[in-house]
Amino acid sequence: MRVAEMNWMQIEAQAQRDDRCVLPLGCVEQHAYLSLATDAILAERVAGEAAEPLGLPVFPVLAYGMTPGFAAYPGTVSLRMSTYVAVMEDLLEGFYRSGFRRIVLVNGHGGNSPIMTLATEWMGKHADASVRLHNWWAGPRFQAAVREVDPAASHASWMENFPWTRLEGVAMPDAVKPPFDAPAYQAASPPKKREILGDGNFHGRYQRSDNEMLALWQVGVEETRAAMVESWP
């Protein structure tokens, strides 16, 4: 259930029935020919589809994240780590005050992953709370399914090219992009990173069939749902 379609009284009652809630985490950054909001779109959608059969409330996606490496690409917006930590701590406190004790962060952007350090510190002050960070695209089942289709897959490649991340009127190159020089990229400034990457695809094909992508999507949804259910402390 989407929190955007609930009122405060319904949230209060829901937290009394089930102390789990879900927050998708995204980012606004270059994704080559795909939407700048790809990570936010995917995180919010996979969280919503995974949570729906469980009846868990999904808060609106935190669309902005930490992506300083792509700062030289127009449209990329990166929060400072101090800003992101402060926002996340305020959000966790808000969930806690609302009665939620098991919080699932469905993350769509690798640069946000360090936030689990803050979540662990926060749990030290709230011993009855539990926070789980699920990097949905990096789950072992999803990654195994990706490799079965095509192991050459990474940021802004076919792996993120779903019908809901494409842009109308934007044609995809019919090509396979070769891998870049990873050590040089890691040590480069944002302008140099752009020079190394070019259009922004890390490597691999730009698009695969919708049948393949929708099958992969179902794996991601099911694995995300399992993260909401299984192995809580």
From TrEMBL:
PANTHER family from the UniProt entry: 2-AMINO-5-FORMYLAMINO-6-RIBOSYLAMINOPYRIMIDIN-4(3H)-ONE 5'-MONOPHOSPHATE DEFORMYLASE, 3-DEHYDRO-SCYLLO-INOSOSE HYDROLASE
Cofactor(s) needed by this chain: Zn(2+)
UniProt entry tagged with the keyword Hydrolase: yes
Stored InterPro entries: Creatininase-like_sf, Creatininase/forma_Hydrolase
Pfam families xref list: Creatininase (PF02633)
Domain of life: Bacteria
UniProt name for this protein: Creatininase family protein
Keyword annotations: Hydrolase, Metal-binding, Zinc
Keyword Zinc part of the UniProt annotation: yes
Protein source organism: Bosea massiliensis
Sequence similarity: Belongs to the creatininase superfamily.
